[in-house]
Amino acid sequence: MKEILYGFYGIRIYLPLSGLSRKWRRFSRRLRNKDGKLLQQVQLPSVSWRRCATQRIVKIWEHNKANGNIRISELGVISAIAANCKEGTNLFEIGTFDGRTSLNLAFSSPPDCKVYTLDLLPEMDTRFSLASGERHMVEKEKPGKRFEKHRISDSSTVAKIHQLFGDSATFDFSPYEKSCSLVFVDGSHAYEYVMSDSYAAMKMIKKGGVIIWHDYGIWEGVTRALEEIEAKGKYGLKNIKGTSLVYWKNE
Ligand SMILES: C[S@@+](CC[C@H](N)C(=O)[O-])C[C@H]1O[C@@H](n2cnc3c(N)ncnc32)[C@H](O)[C@@H]1O
Question: Is the whole model's pTM more than 0.85, yes or no?
Answer without folding.
Answer: yes
